[in-house]
Queue: 2 jobs
Job 1
Amino acid sequence: MIQQILEAAPNMTPNGPQGGNLGPNGLHNSPNMNFIDLGTYIAIIIGVANICLLLALLSIYLKNYREIKSKFTTGLLVFAALLLLQNVVTTLFLALNVFFHISSQGFEIGRPQTPLSSVNIIQFIALLILLRITWD
Amino acid sequence: MKKLLWWLIAGMKGGINRARIIKTLNERPYNANQLSEELNLDYKTVRHHIKVLEQNNIIKATGEKYGKMYFLSDNMEQNYDVFNEIWEQIGKK
């Protein structure tokens, strides 16, 4: 009986990032919460970095598009714009969730912040490579 | 080769100047200094473009260090119509 309660207890804590700002007590009592918050913060920081990289790419592609109007330059422009939109939307939702406690229930990004942050990191590396070869 | 040219000219930063260098080198060989005067570009910019174009086997060099003359590679000359296709799109509204 006691064991069951103990096992159930940690599962009740990861209710999303909202609880993370409750105060030092909340953080000390639940290491899980700390971990989830960290994942969310990393996701937001990397998300902002991705947005910066995409803005740099977009400015280069826009300049090329202005001088050469073709399927190729249009494609690059739309590609960068869509990825930018995706990053702005996800980062905005995460930021609203963390800083203004606006719940995003019903949205997929309400919970799995750790996978999201790893996806963001992978995307960051990919964009960094793309920017490097675009800039050369 | 077609994809590579598109990327080098329309996909990268400074691609238009790269196209102008290819266009100029098609007329006759130049060295880096002459190119920068001819195209009114910074010498360092020209050097950078030359490096990229050389790495991608678009142009070739003869001669020693400072007098190095550049001309189009065989591969580039065979595909010059592809370049013309891109060139025609530049500045077109």
Job 2
Amino acid sequence: MTTRDKNEYPDEHSLTSTDWFRRIGLRFDPYVHLEASSDPHLSEYTVNLDIFRVALDNKPTIIVAPPGGGKTAMRVAVTRTCWFDIGGTYPFPLPYNLGTAPLTGTPPTTREHLRLLLEAGTCALLTGLAFRPERLFRASSTEIRAVTAILRAGLPGPLDYYLDILRETGTPAGLTPLLERTYALTAPPPPDVLDRFCNTLATSGTDAMRGRMEEVFQTFVEVVTDALGFSHVLLLIDGLDAMYENQEDSQHAAPWAFELFDRSETWAKSKTFIKLFIPDSLESAITEYLHHHAISTQIARIIWNHDLLVSMLRKRISVASEERFESLDAISTPALTNIEQQIVKNLPPLPRIALQVTRKAILHYAARLNDGWQLDEEDIRYAIAWYHHYATQRSLSPPSR
Amino acid sequence: MLSPGITITQPSAVYRRHRVDKNQHSLAWQGTGSMSRISKMFGDQRNGRINMTQTDLPVYEDDLFVNRDKEIETVTKALENIARGDAEQVRTIVFQGERGLGKSWLALHLHRSAIKKEASTRIPDYRIVSFLISLTPPPKELQVGEREWYITSNDISQIESGDERHYEHLLQELLAWIAEQLDIVRTPYASLRDLSAWLAQDVRKKLESEQNLIICLILDSVFEANRGFLDYLERYLLAAFAALPRVLIIMTGRGRPYLWKSPYLRLEREDQSLTPFSLEQVTKQIKKSLQKSSQGSPQESPQDTLIAANLSDEAIEQLAKKVINLGGGYPLTNELLARAFVHQVLGRSPKSDDLEQAINSATIDDKVLEGVASRLLEVIPTQWRDELREVLNALCVLKDGFREHEMPYFLAELRDTKPEGPEYTIKAMRGLRDLLLETNLGRWQDARYVLDEAVRTVLEQLLKLQKREVWRRLHERAVNLYEDWAKRYPNSRQYFEQRAEYHRRVLAEDVGHSVSFA
């Protein structure tokens, strides 16, 4: 079996990656982003629609998946689809990464959780509103003052500092790396509208809201649902497995979620719903706690099998080709049929690995594009051999955190 | 009051934008002339030519509508579920189908008749307000009805240019029009983004204040529209409506589907493929159509149409069988073939007594079929039509579809040459493939590209009729190619052997006995 490292990249033939993908009928490389938050098309190729549905609905939920099983991808996809339109009645996605909580050796208290949630929520809200300022513009002046007060109360830095960044960069994308990376939204407003947004917040003449953390967070929820027109708030909680280095120790992370679930019924009454994304290693510890305390929660498991992986690979091809075709069969020699099936049957059922191996096959094809023009058996053999060669020596990239 | 988008430019009163709002029932399209479609259609036939133009097609009328009970039931059920507030609701219904399968008629029928008759009976306490938004211009003789919005040819040209400012302008008009229809007053000068944000909120409030209101958006010819425009349409209109509690979105489309991004357009959706008509339905369609033709004014209705309208049920069924054999049962093709066939026969034996016998014994004139094919291919932009016609002729024998590496063999066979040289490279084939997909007369389905079956059926019949030897050569080419590949690619042997077998069978049926190929 051949393993030709020298031919790995299309650049060797003086083609940019985009040029090369265009030549095979794709608008972009659909397999390049292994880190979900950096993929601008992520929400377009969700295949696990049942999980997607429960991730959006108005019920407390635990979403379980193995490491590398697409938890982050699902969370990012939910976030972006909620902000796709301009001002509709969608849920407000509040990404809460427990991996960024201060490591004090003990789980956060309720007050600490609320403070972190408020910070995460206001970071998300300011970034989201910078992309969709029309939600703010249609609010009354009282509501705008409430938005400003809550932003001042929750943001990690002064609101005016972030508004200056927006004015200087002229784009809401300037805030994304600072405040909330998953909020890399599309269709930003024109610079003059963004400027108006900054002025609206800067001149609303309000100080930061003060009060008990519980009340402040409740006000945040009311601002989002009443003043800004979101249907409900999704607390997208992730990163519980990122605090400990190995799986055995990660069991200790489970109590970090207990405080949150203790409040889930109260939150549900005020349109706020926990969506906890956990690895399967934490499922029993958490569900046992919920059962013991009679806390009602739905559990959804992301279960990858070969058929679903085939669908995922094909959906990406479909999006990248603007639905012109949905399998690599379309650009392959007659020797190949059912390519995605051939790839995944040789791999463990994890999306990350399937993406890496498929991309490897395409890059191998790219390297000899001028000779061949069609994907052939050699490309597939090469990619699978690559996986087996490296998988036995070292594991592939760790799952995203 | 006229809606902001409507301007009257000529005394003949053809509206620039084809829409009629709630206060303007039946005002549009008064300047298109009075000659009936029947006399126009038959006029050229008298001179031995079939010249089917846009006006040949019957326009939608409630009493001409046939079939689609299943689809109407799907819509009615969805509306009932919305009214009941069921947790599991279908918020979006997509009707897909080939060229001439009656998608636009279904959209019109739902909007003008079926929702009023069926849904309003079953949920009488609810006020259902439907909108028809057509992304294809209306046929010239269609009387544009209440709450109907049609894109114009000019809009389509500008959208195709990819100028996003035009997307914005057009959607601004559309959103303002919808707002006006729903009695939501907004400044006409608001930007599209502002308008979209306000409309989302105002419609939500309206639905909250009118608990018995259900809004139904019916969008016709969606997949045929420019993809960039669809992104705008979703972002600024559909995504917001899809998230609302008592809104049903119905779409029709042909060819490659569009992947919506909004979760509510993807999750709570039902897709249905429209199917061609059965013999019984084609018979009914032809009968209604011939009877309708005979009801024109005495000056405009030729004697022929009266004779045709009095055909016996048996004769009409015989005609329907011929029509299905030639065209596959697609309503547009049925209509064109039946009328042309009747008048081909009338042209030769114009007496009523002989007509039924003549219909039974006659074979269709290739000019008639050519006219039908030309009509079906009118959706291809003129500058691509000849090139794509040749590609379609080469591939029309491939009922099971094809992949790009098969294309050069069939094109070369049609041209009676070898698949060598720059015209037959994979790059060239991908260019042709993309043209084909752009017209939505081909799409990826079950691991292969397939041609629009309504078009493929007629083109293959025509090729067989006009150039039987070429048709046979193409099937022979398929047999040889797939047999060869079955030997060369053992992993796909069964796949190719099945295809070879299909073409062997077609050829055998044609000559009435089995044949073998080298």
